[in-house]
Amino acid sequence: MHNIEEILVELQRFSWPDYVAFVAMFLLCICIGIYFGFMNKSVSEADYMLGGRQMLVIPIAFSLVASFISGITLLGLPTEVYSYGVQYLYVAFGVVGMGIVMGVFYLPVFHDLNITSTYEYLEVRFDRRLRLYGSIMFAVMNVAYLPIVIYVPALAFNQVTGIGVHTITPIVCIICVFYTSLGGLKAVVWTDVVQAVSMLGALCLVAIKGSIDIGGVSVVLERAWNTDRLEAPDLSIDPTVRHTFWCLFFGGIVYWTQTNAVSQNMIQRYLALPTLADARKALIIFCVGVLILMALCGYNGLLIYATYQNCDPLTTKLAKARDQLLPLFVMDTLGELPGMTGLFIAGVFSAALSSLSTCLNSMSAVVLEDFVKPYVKQPLSSSSINWIMRLVVVGVGALCVCLVYVVEHMGTVLQLTMSLEAITNGPLFGIFTIGLFLPWINGNSALLGGIMGVIAMSWVSLNAQWAIASGAISYNTKPLNIEQCDYRFNLTATSAANSSLHLAGSATEDIFPLYRISYMWYTTFGASITIIVALLGSLAFGRNNPNKVDPVLLTPCIRRFFSFGSDKPLDAYKPDIPLQHKLRNDEVAL
After folding, report:
1. Rounded Cα distance, 527 and 450, in Å
2. Are 55 and 257 in contact (CB under 8 A)?
3. Alpha carbons 62 and 470: distance in angstroms, whole number
4. What percent of the chain has pLDDT over 70?
5. H/E segment holding residue 3
6. In terms of Cα–Cα distance, which of 264, 265, 283, 263 is closest to 273?
7. Residue 447 pLDDT > 90
8. Is 564 left (phi over 0), alpha (psi -120 to 50) or beta?
9. Closest Cα partner for 284 from 59, 96, 73?
């Protein structure tokens, strides 16, 4: 009987066809960057940031899917379903709800304003302080998120090849920085198309080959049913339950709307389309694409359980980290087929590259529009804009490589990043919602709400993540066993881990209730605090006259309730954007 180390060495069969498949994907991305960087000699700011606002619907939709589904999702969702069952997949209803809410209430405003950075909206609707607040929140979240995006797939690569994490991450970052800085949004979008197809192919490959090996889909579903991994929605109204239908639906709508409708990373894609109708088409295709990828990830999670039902690799530590469960399964299932493991790892890195390039491109837009342009006395020259945009991409990419070392040596940073996301997302979404729906709220009240929202979410989220990291809060998994393993492992360490997990679970009730609320409520909680505090703040700071707020800054359903002090038709109003000269200068060639 082999031990774990021998099994791992035996599984690491990354042959030259795998390397060929893996490298081919990177070369294709580089070629796309070179094409858009050198073939289009005269590139305007609008071309670099927004593809000239003339992009096509299908590539943008694919880019949205690829950008949203990071390597963390690709590797984490199968493990979620493997451990806890399909309950999380009911967030699909939240995704559909997000599509409706965003398409009706949020997208029309941002698309019609003809802006580059969504945080420009905050200055027009409130004042410059709110714009700076939004931009800082965005920058903090991105800088914390980027190293995780690239570190998780590097772990997968390390699992299948044995090559060190710090060997592959600089290479990947350099390639991504190269094609993003060179080709701008057009290069990012078209590489995203390649990467979305690669992701979909990788997941289908694993699902088909794994199902054939185990005896078909019916075997997978039967084993999942027997262990309650296939289950109806949990209709409990207890907010501390990790996943219920209500937190997945309502919390999912708010979380996904914030991510898709307010975050610069995603909204920049919609703004690159010429009309609102095109943007809504892209939104529909995005929702369908995400649901398909989530379903594939979920099925692969059930497939992994059906394969390892009698010997859980997480318990035996054959998979040292939760995010290495799917790569382990891939090595076990596809390792004997030349090139197949390479295609899968290329798909995982495709997810990481698309998210990384999206963040880099968005950061260049936000830094230029929100941190540079408002504070220079003279309009920037085309060459200055050119250098600033590209230097931001290079600088943030270099910072990403450095922070990977921090992520590696601080295990709780993964959870800390989740906390940072919750801290910034909720209050930001609350401020944008105030701007769109509550015209009588002024900048002072909105800023107070945003600050209090960040403080409240920092308190709740960081304490909750600390409790989870220390083991004080734990969640019971579906049945897992190690009764029929055909290799040796450290049974003592496994028993100790299970014992500590049991003790931690019994202590969960002693934790302050607010720390135990489901993470799916975090964004809703942060946004609610921001809106409530802003409403109360209006009692102290006074109110705007809603009729003096430009109607194009409000969501369409709110406009009809205010006269705006004029009989002019709605189309006659134009937003009084302080940076209007920027919009006119977008066509200046760099």
Report:
1. 9
2. no
3. 39
4. 86
5. strand 2-3
6. 283
7. yes
8. left
9. 96
Q: What share of the chain is helix, strand, coil (3-state, %, to 5)?
A: 75, 0, 20
**Which contacts qualify for 134-138: CB closer than 8 Å, 24 or more apart?**
134/370, 134/428, 134/431, 135/366, 135/370, 135/371, 137/424, 137/427, 137/428, 137/454, 138/263, 138/264, 138/362, 138/366, 138/424, 138/428
- The span from the CA of 418 to the CA of 465, in Å, is 8
**What dihedral angle (degrees, nearest 10) is formed by the CA atoms of 275, 276, 282, 288?**
-160
Average pLDDT, the chain: 81
Using CA atoms, how far apart are residues 297 and 463, in angstroms rounded to an integer?
30
Separation in Å, CA 277 to CA 68, 103, 190, 557: 21, 10, 21, 17
| Cβ-based neighbour number of residue 469 at 10 Å | 14
pLDDT of the residue at 254: 93
Where would I find the beta strands (DSSP E) of 434-519? 487-488
Predicted pLDDT at 370 = 82
Q: Give the pair of three-digit tokens for residue 290.
A: 């995400």
Cβ–Cβ < 8 Å for 317, 155? no
Cα distances from 118 to residues 260, 264, 542, 567, in angstroms, run 12, 6, 26, 29
- What is the chain's alpha carbon radius of gyration, rounded to the nearest angstrom? 24
Between CA 474 and CA 472 the distance in angstroms is: 7
Give counts: helices (H), strands (E), the chain.
25, 2
- Provide the residue count of the chain: 590
Question: What phi and psi values does residue 488 have, to the nearest 5 degrees?
Answer: -85, 145
Contacts of 299 (CB under 8 A, 6+ apart): 207, 220
Angle at 561 between CA 559 and CA 563, to 5 degrees: 80
Residue 581: Cβ-neighbour burial (10 angstroms; 0-12, 13-18, 19+): exposed
- For 241, the token pair is 């339950």
Residues 362-381 pLDDT 10s: 888 888 888 888 888 888 77
* Cβ contact 146:396 at 8 Å: yes
Largest CA distance in the chain: 85
* Lowest mean pLDDT segment, chosen from 280-289, 479-488, 498-507: 498-507
The amino acid that residue 83 corresponds to is: S
Segment 546-554 shows an average pLDDT of: 87
Q: How far is CA 447 from CA 250, 434, 505, in A?
A: 25, 11, 39
- The first and second tokens of residue 189, run together, are 């979008």
